[in-house]
Design a protein that fits this description.
With 492 residues, this protein is of the alpha+beta class. It has twelve helices and 25 strands. The longest helix is centred in the C-terminal third of the chain and has 21 residues.
């Protein structure tokens, strides 16, 4: 049945090697399935934070907590009846935070598949832990169902014009078959597909622009499943700060925890290879970017970075509504460009300005003064993840070609981030979809010489509300991570 519903989605053809890789990726992000239940589940059968329990596990080996330890929390899920859950699959986000210190760090959630979960935090200060039950497992099952059974949840309107004649038709990668003829706009270089119903009188060559159409209602979905629940506990642990006389290894993070970094006094501190320095002045940023060409490709979350630079630096800029953008500081020989990625794009954009990122990268000479910034996620999360896997594979090929001809080119990739979801968007564009796509991006580019800006953890760990376009303090920290990748030895 899944194949039947995907039959009207057209994905780029895969080589045998790519097909094997795609299958491995799909297996790696497979979500736990919930057991069947007849009659269908009601909201009372789903996970209820009010009935669930949370325990801070004792420190391994006993003794006093110190900075660098791992704080482990055990969650036991119960439903609204007060019955313990016997299966996993809940989508939980976790963070440890201390408002007084402007400090925060994301927690790593482990699903034991039996209704219990472990959450691990690097213990860096005294604070309280907050877990958000984004979706119970039953809601995730609905989201997974929608991905494959209603992949065309959003249509795209394309405008055609010839003289005074105007027509609008629907376009998509997942275009349900009808008796109407089709315009095939598959990109000849990347093989990325895009189709439109042909207009009644005009030809396919008369396409001029595209914008998003209405979101399709999913009236058969039980919306009660999609109630975001926050449960917080404030059980503090006494933590001793490492004495300067102690060995440095005693103060380092203990154990294997995959955390990108944390906030302290509002500043992001990386736990990865590249330290994040502070570029707090215009002169520091200008000095870092002097004689650089910075090419940005992606969605509006990358455009937000471009706009940050415009505000920080006295750029001369061309600024059309949807791009492409060009900014120039002739005195310091700094050039910054932005171009949106190819379809699907939800904002209104001229047809001639929709370029696939891979094609753009193939035209870049590269070199030690060239910086490439890529971010593509916000407009693709409504589609089956196979589409995203194949798009990123195409971009990866172009990245590898660029690094082959110019190995000293710096390539920075922005991950996705959780967002504030309106009542309908939690079904249409859930954080669960975003998280799954984000896992794909990290897997695709693992082991390649690119710098990752972990927007997911930088947003999750922060105390400000989630937003597709994060608040200025978060963006400032993200841009400091970007500048630190460009100029690892510089800061204000």
């Amino acid at each position: 049945l899944i194949l039947w519903n995907l039959s009207f989605c057209s994905f780029r053809h895969l080589s045998p090697e790519e097909a094997v890789e795609e299958n491995l990726i799909l297996n790696s992000i497979a979500w736990p399935k919930i057991p069947p239940l007849l009659p269908p589940r009601s909201i009372n059968d789903t996970s209820d934070p009010a009935h669930s329990s949370f325990i801070i596990l004792p420190k391994k080996g006993g003794g006093q907590w110190i900075v660098g330890d791992q704080l482990k929390v055990r969650i036991k899920m119960f439903d609204y009846h007060g019955h313990p859950k016997k299966y996993g699959g809940d989508f939980i986000l976790a963070r440890l935070h201390s408002p007084a210190l402007d400090a925060g760090v994301a927690g790593q959630v482990l699903d034991h598949l039996n209704g219990t979960y472990s959450v691990v935090f690097p213990l860096l200060w005294e604070g309280s832990a907050q877990m958000t039950l984004v979706h119970p497992s039953e809601a995730v099952a609905v989201l997974h169902w929608l991905t494959y059974y209603q992949p065309d949840r959003l249509d795209y309107n394309t405008q055609f014009r010839s003289g005074s004649v105007r027509e609008t038709t629907i376009c998509n990668i997942c275009l349900p078959p009808t008796q109407e003829p089709i315009c095939d706009y598959t990109d000849v270089r990347t093989g990325e597909p895009w189709f439109c119903y042909k207009p009644k009188t005009l030809s396919c060559d008369h396409k001029i622009s595209q914008s998003a159409g209405p979101i399709k209602e999913t009236s058969f979905v039980n919306r009660d499943f999609f109630q975001r629940c926050v449960f917080t506990f404030y059980e503090h642990c006494e933590i001793s700060v490492c004495n300067v006389q102690r060995k440095k290894k005693d103060c380092s993070l203990q154990g294997d925890i995959n955390t990108a970094g944390y906030y302290y006094k509002g500043v992001w501190r990386s736990l990865r290879d590249t330290p994040v320095h502070q570029f707090n002045t215009t002169s520091a940023i200008t000095e870092c970017l002097k004689n650089k060409e910075i090419h940005m490709y992606g969605d509006s979350t990358i455009r937000q970075w471009f706009q940050y630079l415009l505000k920080k630096l006295d750029f001369q800029s061309s600024y059309p509504k949807s791009g492409p953008f060009f900014a120039l500081d002739s005195e310091n020989n700094i050039k910054v460009t932005f171009r949106c990625h190819g379809p699907p794009i939800r904002f209104s954009v001229s047809t001639i300005e929709m370029h696939y990122i891979a094609n753009e990268l193939n035209e870049v000479a590269g070199g030690p003064n060239t910086v490439i910034i890529i971010g593509i996620w916000a407009h693709v999360i409504t589609f089956p993840v196979e589409m995203y896997i194949r798009r990123l594979m195409t971009i990866r090929k172009a990245v590898l070609r660029l690094l082959t001809r110019a190995p000293d080119t710096l390539i920075i990739i922005r991950t996705a981030n959780p967002k504030d979801l309106a009542r309908f968007e939690e079904i249409f564009a859930s954080d669960w979809y975003i998280m799954q796509h984000d896992k794909v991006l990290r897997t695709i580019f693992k082991g390649i010489n690119v710098h990752l800006v972990d927007a997911w953890e930088m947003t999750l760990a922060h105390w400000l509300p989630h937003n597709t376009h994060p608040e200025p303090p978060i963006i400032s920290n993200m841009m400091n991570a970007v500048f630190s990748s460009i100029c690892p030895g510089n800061s204000s």
